[in-house]
């Protein structure tokens, strides 16, 4: 949309014609305004058409050292050359480019276990980069629990202790009598738990 002004006065659109050139695809476009009636003269200027903003950014999977991100592909009319992936510092509103891809997914690696990271993605075409997508906060999986000790305290009772895992807010304890099928036995926020009611003289995994 073009608004024509002379000083602070807005000129009604009935007093000029507007013509656009190369204004469909991503890149540099031109708009030309030609006066008519009481106004004369022609003025042209250029403007940028950027790739469409990336949408539906989300985390699709994670390990304890990586997260996988995915997003919707741009429509055929707004085909892009690459997607840029940014790590976002939300406190400083700072976007740092960490990678690029021609696909609509990307895996960020070399991360810390049980940690949160915020990301955004932008599309690039012919040297023009679109707006940042909405951010997404992705979380890596917690590290594997290391058992410190397992001690029987009586018939059917066992005390289990393990090392704290960074980022973990709770722990789930599973038991099995054959090492194949496991059943949830307890959930705790501590790094130790006393199991009771186990079958005596049975090996527990």
Keywords:
205 residues, five-stranded antiparallel beta sheet, three-stranded antiparallel beta sheet
Sum this structure up briefly.
The chain contains no helices and 18 strands. It is mostly beta strands.
Describe this structure in words.
The protein is mostly beta strands. About 0% of the residues lie in helices and about 50% in strands. It contains no helices and 18 strands. It has strands at about 5, 10, 15-20, 25-35, 40-50, 60, 65-70, 80-90, 95-100, 105-110, 115-125, 130, 135-140, 145-155, 155-160, 170-175, 185-190, 190-195. A hairpin with a 7-residue loop joins strand 16 (about 170-175) and strand 17. The radius of gyration is 30 Å and the shape is rod-shaped. The protein starts with a strand and ends in a 10-residue tail after the last strand. The mean pLDDT is about 90.
Weakly predicted, low-confidence segments: none
Count of DSSP helices?
Answer: 0
DSSP strand content: over 45%
* DSSP summary, beta strand count: 18
Which range best describes the helical content: under 10%, 10-25%, 25-40%, 40-55%, 55-70% or over 70%?
A: under 10%
- Structural classification: mainly beta
N- to C-terminal separation? 70 Å
Let me know the average pLDDT.
88
Shape: rod-shaped
Our Rg estimate from Cα atoms comes to 30 Å
Report the major sheet: 5 strands, antiparallel
Element-level helix/strand string: EEEEEEEEEEEEEEEEEE
């Amino acid at each position: 949309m073009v608004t024509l002004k002379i000083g602070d006065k807005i000129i009604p659109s009935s007093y000029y014609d507007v013509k656009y050139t190369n204004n469909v695809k991503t890149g540099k476009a031109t708009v030309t305004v030609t006066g008519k009636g009481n106004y004369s003269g022609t003025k042209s200027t250029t403007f940028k058409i950027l790739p469409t903003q990336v949408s539906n950014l989300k985390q699709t999977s994670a390990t304890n050292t990586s997260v996988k991100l995915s997003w919707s592909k741009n429509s055929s009319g707004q085909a892009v050359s690459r997607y840029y992936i940014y790590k976002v510092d939300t406190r400083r509103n700072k976007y740092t480019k960490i990678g690029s891809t021609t696909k609509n997914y990307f895996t960020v690696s070399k991360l810390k276990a049980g940690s949160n990271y915020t990301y955004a993605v932008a599309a690039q075409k012919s040297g023009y980069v679109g707006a940042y997508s909405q951010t997404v906060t992705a979380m890596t999986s917690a590290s594997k629990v290391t058992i410190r000790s397992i001690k029987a305290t009586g018939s059917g009772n066992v005390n289990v202790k393990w090392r704290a895992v960074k980022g973990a807010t709770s722990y789930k304890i599973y038991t099995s009598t054959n090492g194949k099928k496991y059943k949830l036995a307890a959930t705790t926020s501590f790094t130790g738990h006393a199991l009771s009611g186990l079958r005596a003289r049975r090996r527990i995994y």
